[in-house]
Amino acid sequence: MPRARVWLRGNDLLIAPADADGGDADRLRAELLDVVTARELLYDSRLGAYRTLPASFRRVAERLERDSYRMDVEFDAAPTLPFTPRPSQDARPYQREAVDRWDAAGRRGVVVLPTGAGKTLVALLAIARAGVATLVVVPTIDLLEQWRRALVEQLGAPPEHVATFGGGRRDVGPLTVMTYDSAAIHTRELNRFGLLVFDEVHHLPAASYRRVAEGAVAPFRLGLSATPERSDGRESDLAQLVGPIVMARTPVELSAHLADFREERIHVALSEDEAARYERARSAYRDFVRRRRLRITSPEDFQRLVIWPSANDPEARAALLAQREARRLSFNAAGKLAQLRDLLGRHRDDRVIVFSEFNAIVDEVSRVLLIPSITHRTPPVERQAVLDGFRSGRFTKLVTGRVLNEGVDVPDANVAILLSGTATRREYVQRLGRVLRPKEEKAVLYELISEETDEQHVTTRRHRV
Amino acid sequence: MFSLTDLKRSYGRSGSRGGAPDVRPYLLAGKELAAQRPKLEAAIDWHRAHAGRKRAGIPQDQLAQLVGDYRLARCLAACLQSSFVFRAEPFEQLVRAAVGKAYRTVWHRLQQAHAASAPELRLHIFDAVNARSGGFANPETRGALLNEIAAPFGCDGEQLETLLWSDAEANDRLVAVADPPSVDALAAEYNRRALATLLLRGLSADVFLPSPDGAAIRRVYFAVKRAGLLCELSLQAPDQGASGGVWIHLFGPLEIFGPRTRHGDRFAQAVLELLRAFPRLEGSARVLINDREYVLRLPRGIADLATDSAASAAATVDVSFDSTVEEHLFRTLRGMERRGDTYEWVVEREPEPLVHGTTVLVPDFALTRRGEGAERRVFVEVIGFWTPDYRERKRAKLAALGGSVDLVLVVQEALAPHFADLPYPTLPYRRRPSAHDLVTLLERTYPGARRRPRRTAPAQTDAAAREEWEALFGAGAALPAARAAGKATS
């Protein structure tokens, strides 16, 4: 029976023949080339070993086992958890089905469920079933604490076995929650886990993040997302990085289980003076673009054709300033702030979360109305205090930017107010709506839209599914 | 380093047909520097004039207008950060500025209320607003509400509000932390960073050192090794030896995981260090920009453009080994040496390069025994990493040396057959070489005077090799043992 030695060096997986007579390197090579591409296999003659990506470990191991190799694996690819996980929450039928399907697919795969359908519980059930050290990879710092709490409170993990890595902390435990950014940098930490859970897995195929999946030996992988598709089409890479889509459910299919909300659109008009100024600024910019015959279809075009020349071209500079003025006016901060005040007055006793993707607007709302805010600039301690405070009811109003759009549970908020937005899909509004939790009445989502500006076109576009 | 977007550069094609195109960074030198000099002066003056001001009060576009180019302005601002930085003022100082005479009382009360920083103060205010005003402040009552919250601290609402968001970026002040650089120093720093921005994306570099001496080759080789990179040396004109110039091919260790430019930092550092240390160096690097390969030309003297005092004080790199095998062997030998277990062999890293005919080889160690008889110096080469390609090149070099020096090969067992026909004693190993076995091999091959009192005949190098050696290391330098003197294979 041929023998192979398998070990890790740096972030490479190494495989070498380990028979007394030196073994048959050519046969081993042929075996390996059946399961990894030639581009991912390199012979290191100093070590007498083949180097490949850690992610190939499972394929390599299964192949060599099949062909009766005796393997000396010098690491534990799936360390057992030092406690028995006990999910405290009852799973809904579709959540149980998701885990069963994932299990049947060899504990690899992606589960697609709409926001608010309980993806976290699916992951907790998967961790309980696998019973191995697990790394949960999340897109934002806010999610670190949310997942840590879920692992402790809903999985019964002793707090000392749950660690968070990112946002200034660097702890690693049998259950670890890490941001994509940290995981992509600290790749040496990846090989302590048998199961990888990728929250919002559509981030993973990005050039800088895919190394998280490639650099880990973990044989078990679970991806979670409401919207796995990406604008660059790289979602197809997920099959290789994580596994196939094992289950996908739409909001319509799960409507019985999802939070219901009412949507109200409020048009806020510019004052006559503002509308005139807006029109002047817009036409100044448009005239410049037309006169110079510029074709501006992306932010990069704008930078290259307007911002850079504006340093030494007075006309470009005037156009740039006009464009900025138009944008500022189109936010219509004054009008929306007045409307916002009215809405907050109406929902004095409710938990209200206000969204704007523009940090300047978030700051202004926070300052004028003395409401706690969270943006990417908020110091971590304050950010945690504000989120905890909102959850516990210490604060009943919260204004935030994009950082909370994705995946962060905002329990008990029953009103959301969306100030301005970008041209994303209809799904965006629905996702915001579904983070709401109804009280006696239906939850409600207000969308404040400026009239007579570009922004209205953006919103119209967004409402087109 | 600059962001790639900010770096002004152009692309061209001056190399061979079908070769990679050139990338040419915009550098501040010669006529260009002369033309830009007033703008650089203006950038320095602009920073000096705004020192002490808050970020919010500094028109950022103005610098770009002064310099006349957005990207250059941003790069210059980045360079000037060694003299001017934005800093937040300490909260206590802000309290003093906001409330004047009442400072002591207010500061004490803020501390007592755990509100002695802007974030803490905000949480305090939000608590109060939540308790008194239904979670938000109405504009009509906002002023009164703030006054009410401020009163217990001994200040008014307006003063409190100036403190509330005092940690916002807009409130940071531009502070002069060092004397501003001269225009020439600023240009040099700009050039250094511009080159580093591209070299950071380097895959490999080929540089040429015209007529180096042995010490120069050694310095180059070990500077590269210290940066954790590898290099291969080859002669430009084999018939002229090292005096015809040496090519240095610089590249990073082999790993399959990670991007191709993963050694970027070390690579940029090593190339810049070499360019600084050897003004006569010239060559080119292969760099990867947006997944495309380009050639970055490094003409002679380019280092002068990028050299100023601050840059030459750049952080030194740790001495590192290029493999754990080598490191383990060296440390064990050192330990044995201290305990007197090496039969008087003294181990030394970074020995002189071996030059013979067309070949330049820098071995990993030298072991020297100064006994009663003639000094014996034996070089050790640990083999040998990486791709079959690299192995073959190494083999060819060793073969070319033709046994002209005393050299022992420490070879991984699986590789040993590839080196078996070479005229050197070989110590095979499986996972780690044994230092003890190495010393035993040395003793067996070059018996010591103490154990076998036998005077070694004087070195009998052939005339050409001796001449070459003396040209490189001077007549007084230790001669490698002659090929005739007790050579053995194992």
Main β sheet profile of chain A: 8 strands, mixed
Number of helices, where a helix is a run of at least 4 consecutive DSSP H or I residues of chain B: 18
What percent of residues of chain A adopt helix (DSSP H or I)?
Answer: 25-40%
Question: How many strand elements of chain A?
Answer: 19
Could you estimate the helical fraction of the residues of chain B in percent? 40-55%
First CA to last CA of chain A: what distance? Answer: 60 Å
Structural class of chain A: alpha/beta
Biggest chain pair interface = A-B, 53 and 52 residues
Count of strand segments of chain B: 16
Q: Beta-strand level of the residues of chain B, as a percent range?
A: 15-25%
Strand order of the largest sheet of chain B: 6-7-5-8-9
Rounded to the nearest angstrom, the radius of gyration of chain A is 26 Å
Computed Rg of chain B: 32 Å
Task: Describe, in plain words, how this protein is organized in 3D.
By secondary structure, chain A is an alpha/beta fold. Helices cover 38% and strands 20% of the residues of chain A. Chain A is built from 16 helices and 19 strands. In chain A, the strands form 3 sheets. An 8-stranded mixed beta sheet of chain A has the order 9-8-10-7-11-12-6-13. In chain A, strand 8 and strand 9 (169-170) form a beta hairpin. In chain A, helix 3 (93-104) crosses helix 4 (119-130) and helix 9 (272-291) runs antiparallel to helix 11. The longest helix of chain A has 20 residues, at 272-291. Chain B is built from 18 helices and 16 strands. In chain B, 36% of the residues are buried. Chain B has helices at residues 30-50, 60-67, 70-79, 91-99, 103-112, 118-133, 139-150, 157-164, 183-199, 214-226, 264-277, 302-305, 309-312, 324-339, 388-401, 416-419, 435-445, 463-473; strands spanning 9-12, 22-25, 84-87, 173-176, 202-209, 230-235, 246-251, 282-289, 292-298, 345-349, 354-356, 359-361, 365-369, 376-383, 407-412, 426-429. Helix content of chain B is 41%, strand content 17%. The model of chain B is unreliable at 309-320, 452-461 and 474-490 (pLDDT under 50). Chain B is of the alpha+beta class and 490 residues long. In chain B, strands 6-7-5-8-9 form a 5-stranded antiparallel beta sheet, with helices on one face. In chain B, strands 10-13-14-15-16 form a 5-stranded mixed beta sheet, with helices on one face. Chain B has a two-stranded antiparallel sheet with strand order 1-2. Classes of the chains: A alpha/beta (465), B alpha+beta (490).
